Amino acid sequence: MAHIKPGVSKEEAKAKLQALFTMQTRQKMIEENMKKIRYKIGVISGKGGVGKSTVTANLAIELASRGYNVGVIDSDFHGPSIPKMLGVEDKRVLATRDKKMIPVKGPLNIKVISIYFFLPDPTAAVIWRGPLKKSFLEEILASAQFGELDFLLVDLPPGTGDEALNLIQSVNDITGLIAVTQPTDVSAIAVAKSIDFAQKAGVDVLGIIENMSGFVCPGEGKIYKVFPGNGGKDLSEMFNIPLLGSIPIDPGLAEAEDRGGLYVLERRDSIFSKEFRKIVDKLLEILEEKGSS
Length: 293
Fold this sequence. Notes:
Low-confidence stretches: 1-6
Mean pLDDT: 89
CATH architecture: 3-Layer(aba) Sandwich
Number of domains: 1
Helix content: 40-55%
């Protein structure tokens, strides 16, 4: 029951009770929606530019290509990029008569929700403080009609701020997180903070992915190390978390993402695609073990 202090007017008391009722109703709706989804996984990093959205998009594509029902929430409200990567940036979210969101249907029937679909144009800035971001994420979780899913992937913005905390607090039965790093010490230190955040919040980190681990030369196909360090391996050993894989820089991937192409499927023979298949194989093994324990 909400605490109403002496001297509070009837109007203020009514507003406070209504807000409490709305919060409880929304949380109940979130719980009902999440019951229909087997695995809820957030993709995190400690800093920007490590390829977190690339990992999220390609996880979705590879999982969907194997017959899984997949949904993606792009919760990087200030820099949404998932719609562009999945080639659905020209679509819009529809609504039911009772004002529930109908996710955009992307390639391989991947269901996508992003603030990108609500912007007047792609360059419009989202100037929101924490409470607005919390409210919008809760609205997505409560009202988006994802239906029955095997996987819901949430692309989180860098760091351990509002969006990551809001997801963990809103989804009580979150399966876990995947941490994305670059090889460098600078990146690994930042990602270590995200892993520490997850552990303090009591959420499993399912695995670590090292992105940009090397450069695939287009001519000879040989991998050259570009960045110093072994961030993925170091974090894996430091926290005793599985290293899911190390993804090289592939120029063909960037070109495919700009045009909304599905590189991981288009170039099954590429080093990137082969490594990504291994990552998904390992992730599925971890989830199976987690489910049986």
